[in-house]
Specification:
This protein is of the alpha+beta class. The protein has four helices and 18 strands. It is globular and about 50 Å long.
Length: 269
């Protein structure tokens, strides 16, 4: 079977996207999904995204990590799939997207996409966690998927692979684990971020839900005020906006790029 695909990236977070409105994409073959995402022997990507029919929204988004496992949400991926769905005629410029995390909305303006996310939940602030022989002040929230944030004085000096992996598998976040983010506040409305992504099992150049989580957590802690400009490891700046609330935040949005790289055809099996 020959499957057309699009390679896209959102702030250097790169994806393989396919139009699966016919329901023929072999999403259940985890091994094959992992192989096509492999950097040296496949297309290379940090996720596979599918456009599928939905009875509740303009379309349904499914997202698969490089290990072949399906997860609830991806902020950078959602921006990319919103742009592609609009270009394919699967959704209007302002659309509703069904995800496993709930319904989200998106608005397409060229390669800039405004994403309205689900309400954040599972807030936990100021947790003292022993990680890799040191005590870290950690804060966490679910911004579609679970994220933990640690503020550091020098982001460039952080061993993201070591500390990120230790946090990702920390007993405090068992059994599912978490994504791990490290931030450095750079101004009243700005910060820098580095992220270790669950499922990718490595540092990535950007993570949309991590960017949102850290904007929200830093805002709740009084370290920044919305809107928050967040500089990624890949060099892109995304904007997180929200309305502070007594129990968290409402009206959460993420604005950032969704860029085409190339098109091609996959062979299955």
């Amino acid at each position: 079977m020959r499957i057309p695909f699009w390679k896209m990236h959102g702030a250097a977070n790169d994806f393989i996207l396919a139009d699966d409105r016919a329901g023929t994409f072999p999403a259940g073959d985890r091994g094959w999904l992992a192989r096509i995402m492999a950097r040296r022997t496949g297309v290379g990507a940090e996720g596979v995204l599918l456009i599928q029919p939905s009875a509740r929204a303009d379309f349904r988004m499914r997202f698969f990590n490089p290990d072949g496992g399906e997860v609830d949400m991806c902020g950078n991926g959602a921006r990319c799939i919103a742009r592609l769905a609009h270009e394919l005629g699967a959704a209007p410029r302002e659309m509703r997207i069904e995800t496993r995390a709930g319904l989200v909305r998106a608005a397409v303006d060229g390669d800039s996409i405004l994403l309205h996310l689900t309400e954040p939940r599972d807030w936990q602030l100021n947790r003292q966690l022993e990680v890799a022989g040191q005590i870290l002040d950690a804060h966490s929230v679910n911004s579609g998927v679970p994220h933990v944030m640690v503020e550091v004085p020098d982001l460039d000096a952080v061993n993201v692979q070591e500390l990120g992996r230790a946090l990702r598998y920390h007993p405090a976040f068992a059994p599912g684990g978490t994504n791990a983010n490290f931030i450095q506040v750079t101004g009243p409305h700005s910060l820098r971020i580095r992220t270790y992504e669950r499922g990718v099992e490595a540092e990535t150049l950007a993570c949309g839900t991590g960017i949102v989580a850290c904007g929200l957590l830093a805002g709740r802690l009084g370290r920044v005020r919305p809107p928050v400009s967040i500089l990624t490891a890949g060099g892109d700046t995304l904007e997180v906006n929200f309305a502070p609330a007594a129990d968290g935040a409402t009206g959460v949005t993420l604005r950032g790029p969704a860029v085409h790289v190339f098109q091609g055809t996959l062979e299955y099996p």
